[in-house]
Amino acid sequence: MEVEGSRNAKETLELAFQISNLLETGLDRHTLSLIISLLDRGVNPEPLSALIRELSSPPPHSHATSSSSAKP
Predict the structure, then answer these.
(1) Alpha-carbon distance 37 to 2, whole Å?
(2) DSSP string of the chain?
(3) Cα–Cα distance measured from residue 62 to residue 16, given in angstroms and rounded to the nearest whole number
(4) Considering the entire predicted model, what is its pTM?
(5) How confident is residue 17, by pLDDT bands cut at 50, 70 and 90?
(6) Burial class (CB in 10 A: 0-12, 13-18, 19+), 33
(7) What segment(s) does the record annotate as region Disordered (predicted)?
(8) 69 pLDDT above the threshold of 70
(9) Closest Cα partner for 36 from 48, 24, 26?
């Protein structure tokens, strides 16, 4: 039974990874595994997805330039 559960988990992760690639999320298998684990433990998916988007987005561009603060 344990072997079957492990096989199902691997198949689920592989399917999630394929979907992730189709949607071009940029998430790797390890990250997806962590996300699935959190969801299995009852984490609310909407705030989790918002957090993932926030952490995945590039930092905002700063208008200040480093040359203006450089010392001669």
Answers:
(1) 17
(2) -HHHHHHHHHHHHHHHHHHHHHTT----HHHHHHHHHHHHTT--HHHHHHHHHHHHSPPPPPSS-GGGS---
(3) 35
(4) 0.71
(5) very high
(6) middle
(7) 53-72
(8) no
(9) 48
